[in-house]
Amino acid sequence: MLQHLYEIKYNRLFIDHINQSNKYKFLDTLGIGSFGVAYLLQHKLTNKKYVLKRLRAKHKNKASTKYNFQQEIAFLQKEMHPNLPTVKEEGFVKGLPFYMMDFIEGHTFEHLIFNKGQTFSVHESLTLVKQLFEIVLTIHDHGIVHRDLRIPNILLHHNKLYVIDFGLACYMKESTNIDTIKNPKKAENYIIDLYYIGHFLLYLLYSNYTPHDKKERCWQEELQLPLYIQHYIERLLLIKRAFPDTRTAYEALPL
Ligand SMILES: Nc1ncnc2c1ncn2[C@@H]1O[C@H](COP(=O)(O)OP(=O)(O)OP(=O)(O)O)[C@@H](O)[C@H]1O
Q: What is the pTM of this model?
């Protein structure tokens, strides 16, 4: 209960901070995640939209979470790729850190698939994955892994793909032996991003799938993909021999 009130207090403080800035006005709350809260704002003169992301009040005194939040800002400030948001400002409101970034118009793939019912053919899906790879390759070239390439964190606008939310990103650990990775979702090297790219591809391909009977089968049976595409996804998901690096996986894309 106290935590809830604390959150409400900071919510009010941030909305007041935005509205009193003379530059921006508050438009909406975009999302409340486990670590952050994202607000949509608009520049009063240019009408351009921005996102202000702040740490959740409950993490105000947690050193590791605060460190991760600062690291998230630092990663975005590297401006690694034009299809990542650019940080405009950063600061604190009553001890709680925030940063402001460009608002990416368009929709997340979660919204496109589950709310709008958009479908993607095999060719369209692979073309989108190619775009995602091009962003991920650049991030990996900077020695960073995103670690959260899920459909709510990937957006589409005018057929261009964008990646947000570096909240779980970290510097790549090079020395891990790929064969000993037990849980790819916890990895701190390229494997975790390849694993999520494999899942992203499955979400796109499933958008076109209509079940024929009530029995649930494995994706290989349900999707009935050409074998070379199935094998490719199995390698991304570590069901088959892992790709030795991101570029090899990108170059092997069956497109
Ligand atoms: N730059 C942006 N452009 C457009 N929409 C954004 C942007 N950043 C965030 N959003 C939207 O706001 C929502 C919440 O943002 P974000 O994913 O960064 O934080 P979160 O997932 O709520 O928090 P956490 O970091 O704790 O997981 C996202 O689902 C996305 O729809």
A: 0.94
